[in-house]
């Protein structure tokens, strides 16, 4: 999808500060996006159900339910991309948001250019994940089976629930099985070139995948670390 195709995408902005919400809306509309606002967490849930936005910008601090509670409710029914708006220096908020299923975060104060760039990057990743859903079942071994066509991952016959970013990361690792992907390559493929200075994303999501796929995450057999370089998915074709 080209950048011009993003112009009519619908963005839900959730912030209890109406001036901030208006500032965000005006800048997104200037870039061609459609925008709806919500000023409370529960209002955001209702807007999600009725408007079906393409991306949600979700502030952490809100009066009724906070951004984390809202995110948990969103993730119960939807995989819509969510970008958290966090206060400057609140690293715990950023990590917590990612752990709960947020796709990204933007730290206040932010520039309009940075915000639009992050929204576009999330939309590109979503399109990339949709395009990745091709091919038949991959049998890694007797325990792990992956079907990118159906977007299914099974471990010992049980369906493993992956978040969108985890799925994209796994897809690129498996498609390059046996080859080392550097931090920069993973950031570019999974998050976009805008994230080249944020290697912590890679470490965090590799850990998430290992927790879900590896019997012993501390001694992985599928997602292997190449120290100082990056990560490699086991060469299942050679192993088989």
Layout of SSEs?
Elements: E1 10-14, H1 18-30, E2 34-38, H2 41-51, E3 55-59, H3 67-77, E4 82-87, H4 91-99, E5 104-108, H5 112-131, E6 137-139, E7 144-147, E8 152-155, E9 158-159, H6 164-175, E10 180-182, H7 183-191, H8 200-213, E11 223-226, E12 230-233, H9 236-239
Parallel strand pairs: 1-2, 1-3, 3-4, 4-5
Antiparallel strand pairs: 6-7, 7-8, 8-9, 10-12, 11-12
Helix pairs in contact: 2-3, 5-6, 6-7, 6-8
Briefly characterize the structure.
This protein has 240 residues and is α/β, with parallel strands linked by helices.
What does this structure look like?
It is built from nine helices and twelve strands. It has 240 residues and is of the alpha/beta class. Helices cover 43% and strands 21% of the residues. The model has no long low-confidence stretch (mean pLDDT 87). The strands form three sheets. A five-stranded parallel sheet has the order 2-1-3-4-5, sandwiched between helices. It has a four-stranded antiparallel sheet with strand order 6-7-8-9, with no helix packed on it. Strands 10-12-11 form a three-stranded antiparallel sheet. The chain folds into two domains: 3-130, Rossmann fold; 132-239, Winged helix-like DNA-binding domain superfamily/Winged helix DNA-binding domain (Arc Repressor Mutant, subunit A, Orthogonal Bundle), CATH 1.10.10.10.
């Amino acid at each position: 999808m080209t950048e011009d195709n993003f112009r009519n995408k619908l963005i839900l902005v959730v912030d209890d500060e109406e001036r901030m919400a208006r500032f965000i809306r005006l800048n997104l509309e200037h870039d061609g996006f459609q925008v709806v606002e919500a000023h409370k967490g529960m209002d955001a849930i209702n807007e999600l159900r009725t408007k079906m936005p393409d991306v949600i910008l979700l502030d952490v601090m809100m009066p009724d339910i906070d951004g984390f509670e809202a995110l948990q409710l969103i993730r119960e029914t939807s995989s819509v991309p969510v970008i958290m708006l966090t206060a400057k220096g609140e690293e715990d908020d950023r990590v917590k948001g990612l752990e709960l299923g947020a796709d990204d975060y933007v730290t206040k104060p932010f520039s309009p250019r940075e915000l639009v760039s992050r929204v576009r990057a999330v939309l590109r990743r979503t399109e990339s994940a949709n395009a990745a859903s091709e091919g038949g079942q991959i049998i890694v071994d007797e325990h792990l089976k992956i079907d990118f066509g159906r977007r299914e991952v099974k471990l010992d016959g049980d369906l493993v629930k992956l978040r969108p970013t985890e799925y994209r990361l796994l897809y690129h690792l498996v498609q390059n099985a046996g080859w080392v992907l550097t931090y920069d390559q993973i950031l570019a493929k999974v998050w976009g070139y805008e994230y080249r200075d944020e290697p912590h994303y890679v470490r965090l999501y590799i850990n998430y995948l290992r927790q879900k796929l590896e019997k012993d995450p501390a001694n992985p057999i599928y997602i292997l670390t190449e120290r100082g370089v990056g990560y490699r998915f086991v060469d299942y074709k050679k192993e088989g």
